[in-house]
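Homework help board

Subject: predicted structure for assignment chain

Our instructor gave us this sequence and asked us to write out the predicted structure in token form, then describe one feature. I got the tokens but I'm not sure how to describe them. Can anyone check?
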Amino acid sequence: MILRHGILRVSRPCWLDRRKTIQLQFLSTTSSNNAAPPPKDVQPVAEHVRGLMREIPHPLTVIVAQEPNTGSPPAGLLVSSFNTVTLHPTPYVSFNLKLPSSTYDAIKASRTFTASAVADVQLAKAFLMDKKAEGYMKTMRSNVYDQRGGMLKPGRGAMWWMRCRWAEEKSQPVGDHVIVVGEVLGAEHYIRSLDEKARVSDKPLIYSEGKYRNAGPPVAEG
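My token output:
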């Protein structure tokens, strides 16, 4: 309390200024600790994961579907993500597709698809062909796909087929892909000709480190 020229002035205690300074320092430190971290570049992580997964063998499967009552050619593609989800009480399978996808459009329209295990490199390459490339429609219409049975033609380098009903309620979009789930309605080996047996391995193709491969002999245990 200070008296100047008859006027009473109340000075601000110095400890209040110190407290304000301490509070400001605390708020500054707290806000910096709670601030959202700067965005990270996820691309290096994605590329690293891609490189790691390339080292693991993946089975190759052709997925084919056709929109009903449109006269459009069947749509199909090669996937390396096909696998079983469960066998009991009902067998379900799944695979991943990158969107947009004409094959996924055909699956949604027909609500069915056929999965075929690939044994022939030429069959695998046929389904890697650009959809707009010359000869693709001919390949799909007459050389590979049997429109009556909804599956690949026998003798074209496939091991077995599974006819599936699309399980819409179980399928799930994830990022720029969709996980497609299907209920298996029927499954069987393709009938292979003697020529095909002599030309094509009796083991399905796998893909690893950027190359088509066949599974090797079993590894000795113990």
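Reply (TA_rk): Your tokens look well-formed. For the description, you could write something like this. Confidence is low (pLDDT under 50) at residues 1-16, 18-32. That's the kind of observation they're looking for.
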